[in-house]
Amino acid sequence: MQLVKPDINIDFVGRRKIAVIVSIALIVIGLASLVVKGGPEYGIDFAGGTLIQVRFADNTSATDIKDGLQSLDLGNVVVQQFGDDAKEYLIRTQSSSTEMKGIGQQVTSALKTEYGEEKVEMRRIEMVGPQVGEDLREKGYKAILFAMVAILIYITLRFEFRFAVGAILALVHDVAITIGAFSLSGREIDLPIIAAFLAIIGYSLNDTIIVYDRIRENMGRYNKEGFTKIVNRSINETLSRTLLTSGTTLMVLIALFVFGGGVIHNFAFAMLVGVLIGTYSSIFVASPLLIFWDDYRKASRAAKAAGEKA
Questions:
Q1: Number of helices (H) and strands (E), helices first, in the chain?
Q2: What is the largest CA-CA distance in the chain?
Q3: CA-to-CA distance for 92 and 243, rounded, in angstroms?
Q4: Among 50, 154, 264, 278, which lies 20 to 30 A Cα-Cα from 101?
Q5: Using CA atoms, how far apart are residues 94 and 47, in angstroms rounded to an integer?
Q6: Beta bridge mates, 88
Q7: If you compute the radius of gyration of the chain from its CA atoms, what whole number of angstroms results?
């Protein structure tokens, strides 16, 4: 199946400087948001504390729920609507206890007193100690780092070191923009989101490897053409495959995001942003980085040759 003509010739690499500006702008906006907010917003998995999901018989508000919990000594409490239903809410508190059942009973009892005995249902309760949360956060970031190192080694062995550097920079670009999107939208990062980041790395890398493999083939087939033309030809030749893969993946992710419910909502959001940015980076970041590298080497050789002649 071909979405585009086999002989299409769009000048992708000719727009590489514009792509650099766009990428830097997106990363800077995300970093600015992180700085303003004092870093990423971590979920219970990483920050520690207690999470309680409750459902009410009638519509209510976060303010009313907080008022109903004032009699309890829960510390800093955050109440957030769960999904699109104004009847279901998440209650988060930084305090944790080994007696999760006790906290749940206290919260449920207080809310039943406020709303009525039959109008409050506790759906779930989760508790993570601060030390465990810090350990999970550290291991999550290590998993991403080790994945990057393994990819660097793999691509260096399969292709060349410059290809590996291009792929790693593109992956860092994808994850950085996704984290920025989470910060801008006020979403929390927890263990499922780390899994989403790793999935994004794998998806983006797969797309990049396809393009890189075609570049390597065309370097032997069209060795008389300039490297810039070879890279652009390779992107165009794999464009149909890229659009098909990304398009079908996005259809599934959009369905998950819209119909998957609150539990999977943030995961689907991370994957949506990651697949979109990963497709963009395979075309406008990973491959053009090879051209920047090639131009730099040529300029260095020319400068060295000029110095020797002088």
A1: 11, 4
A2: 91
A3: 41
A4: 264
A5: 8
A6: 55
A7: 25
d(CA 283, CA 286): 7
The b-or-e profile of 1-21 (16+ CB within 10 A means b, else e) is: eeeeeeeeeeebbeebeebee
According to DSSP, the residues that pair with 78 across neighbouring strands are 92
199: helix, coil or strand? Answer: helix
Q: What would the mean pLDDT of 120-145 be, rounded to a whole number?
A: 80
Per CATH, 13-42+132-305 and 49-128 having the same topology is answered no
For residues 207 and 171, is the Cβ–Cβ distance under 8 A? Answer: no
Question: Is the pTM for the entire model greater than 0.85?
Answer: no
Query: Could you tell me which CATH number the domain at 49-128 has?
Result: 3.30.70.3400
- Write out pLDDT tens, residues 196-244: 998 998 888 888 888 999 998 998 888 788 888 999 999 998 888 888 8
Could you state, in order of their start, the residue ranges of all structural domains in the chain? Answer: 13-42+132-305, 49-128
**Strands laid side by side in the 88-93 sheet:** 77-81, 88-93, 49-56, 120-128
Asked if 204 contacts 274 with a C-beta cutoff of 8 angstroms, the reply is: yes
CA 214/CA 4 separation, integer angstroms: 17
| One-letter amino acid of 103 | I
DSSP structure string for 234-272: HHHHTHHHHHHHHHHHHHHHHHHHHHS-HHHHHHHHHHH
Alpha carbon 110 to its chain centroid, in Å, reads 38
User: What are 39's two structure tokens?
Assistant: 């870093």
Topology of domain 13-42+132-305, per CATH? Multidrug efflux transporter AcrB transmembrane fold (1.20.1640)
Predicted pLDDT at 265: 85
Neighbours of 90 (CB within 10 A): 20
What CA–CA distances, in Å, run from 225 to 241, 287, 290, 310?
24, 16, 15, 31
